[in-house]
Amino acid sequence: MADAFDVIVVGVGSMGAAACHELSRRGARVLGLEQGSLPNPNASFAGATRAIRLSYAEHPDYVPLLRGAYERWETLGEECGRRLLQLTGALYLGPPEGELVSGARRSAEEHNLAHSLHDHADLAINWPQFQLPENFVGLHETRAGYLLSEQAVAAYIEGALRSGADLRGHQAVQNWSADESGVTVKTENAEFHAGHLVITAGAWTGQVLSDLGVPLKITRQVLGWVWPPAPEDFTADKFPVWVVDGNDGAGVHYGFPITPDGSGGVGLKLALHWPSTETNADTVERGALAGDEDEIRDALRRFIPTGDGPLLSQRVCLYTNSPDGHFIVDRHPEHSRVSLACGFSGHGFKFASIMGEVLADLATAGKTDWPIGFLGLSRFDS
Ligand SMILES: Cc1cc2nc3c(=O)[nH]c(=O)nc-3n(C[C@H](O)[C@H](O)[C@H](O)COP(=O)(O)OP(=O)(O)OC[C@H]3O[C@@H](n4cnc5c(N)ncnc54)[C@H](O)[C@@H]3O)c2cc1C
Fold first, then answer.
1. Which of 77, 114, 339, 370 could form a disulfide with 142 if both were Cys (CB 3.0 to 4.6 A apart)?
2. Residues of 168-185 as b/e, b for ≥16 C-beta within 10 angstroms?
3. Residues 366, 331 contacting (CB under 8 angstroms)
4. Among candidates 140, 99, 113, which has minimal Cα distance to 54?
5. 209 lines ligand 1 (CB under 6 A)
């Protein structure tokens, strides 16, 4: 029997929507199955914006992937007629010996990225919104900013549909199998066949890929929006994307400027990157819990007291953390017709545009020229 589809994508979220878009653009017959709505407000791109940066001390091979990702975000913006990538610059703040500032500096120097260094006095002149401990310095990266993540995923979904992809919401995949001739995917009411399967199930990956043998830790992350007493001080012309790590074990906070048209949510957005609480994707409390507001407000009180205004809204989102914090992007070790991308560990959205291409390469050619070797499953072999 001929395959009904060339490729089935399980999970049409950040990576899955980008893969569906790229595969259908290349002429593949694609079926995308999404358990929630399309787009799904409970997926990990929710909350309007995601930070994007080129300086990546975490591994040098992220930088070439990011250069590709930046280009493709621009292209997607041109296709959908909206600027999805906003370059506001990003400011990394902390003690000079801390990994945040020293790592950003190492990466900026190694990859020749436009940046400037600022001592404490200089920070106070350029960004008076912050009140920082005396020992803090800053690195400002020019080609960093934010992506309109919800709009970007919607653009991928619409683009894929217009290129002929068959995308279906409210279709939870219950199980799949693969052999030499193809793959079979089952939902509650239907069974589908294809030549290749791409699994991009985000925080639900453990359920779809139970045999992977790599523990993925799901954490509950709270995003908050406040209304500062002087909102005009927090627009992107004066206030960039920022990250602060006091290097004192108290955690890493980050935030965004107020967006001119409310596209980033109304107000000043900020969040705690870590520490966070382990949870489960199906049972997580998505409403407000005692302590959520304090978690957000802590950064305002300590570092941006001029922004400390009333809370407007908050949102819960999930990180899917791999054991080493690096993504997992590979072919399935036992099934050559199955590829997967998961474990984006709270920093993956900015890569979605290039991951769409990587996953399309793996599904159609079995390999990619992009440097993804460091993201392979074999690193967990002991
Ligand atoms: C609060 C927060 C802040 C973040 N900040 C940043 C940032 O500033 N910069 C950055 O680059 N990254 C950031 N990230 C990380 C980034 O957003 C995620 O890494 C990325 O969205 C993960 O994409 P994904 O495709 O793996 O998962 P998702 O986008 O969640 O997509 C997975 C999809 O699979 C679907 N699915 C799962 N199981 C099934 C099934 N059985 N059948 C059908 N469908 C299924 C889900 O419903 C979901 O829609 C942040 C994440 C969070 C939560």
1. 114
2. eeebebeebebeeebbbb
3. yes
4. 113
5. no
Residue 182, ligand 1, Cβ within 6 A? no
User: Residue 143 carries which DSSP code?
Assistant: T
Pocket test for ligand 1, best of 344, 358, 359 (most atoms within 8 A of CB): 344
Q: Is 185 in the pocket of ligand 1 (CB under 6 A)?
A: no
Place of tokens 């683009």: 159
* Maximum separation of any 2 CA atoms in the chain, in Å: 71
Query: Tokens 């925080």 appear where?
Result: 203
User: Which residues is 78 bridged to in the sheet?
Assistant: none
> CA-based angle 329:331:335, to the nearest 5?
150
Q: What is the distance in angstroms between the CA of the first residue and the CA of the last residue of the chain?
A: 41
Cα separation of 253 and 257, whole Å? 14
* Ligand 1 proximity of 73 Cβ (cutoff 6 Å): no
Residue 273 CB: number of other CB atoms within 10 A?
17
Model confidence pTM above 0.70: yes
DSSP-derived secondary structure letter, 250: S
DSSP summary character for residue 45: T
Task: Using the atom order of ligand 1, give the atom closest to the CA of residue 346.
Answer: 15
Q: Two tokens at 221? A: 């992350």
Q: Is 349 in the pocket of ligand 1 (CB under 6 A)?
A: yes
Cβ(346) to ligand 1 under 6 A? yes
Q: Would the CB of 43 count as within 6 Å of ligand 1?
A: yes
Residue range 49-67, pLDDT digits in tens: 999 999 999 999 999 999 9
Please give the Cα distance from 71 to 74 (Å, whole number).
5
Most ligand 1 atoms within 8 A of CB, residue of 50, 52, 205, 345 to mutate = 50
70 in the Ramachandran plot: left (φ > 0), alpha (ψ -120 to 50) or beta?
alpha
Condensed to tens digits (0 to 9), the pLDDT of residues 303-315 reads: 999 999 999 999 9
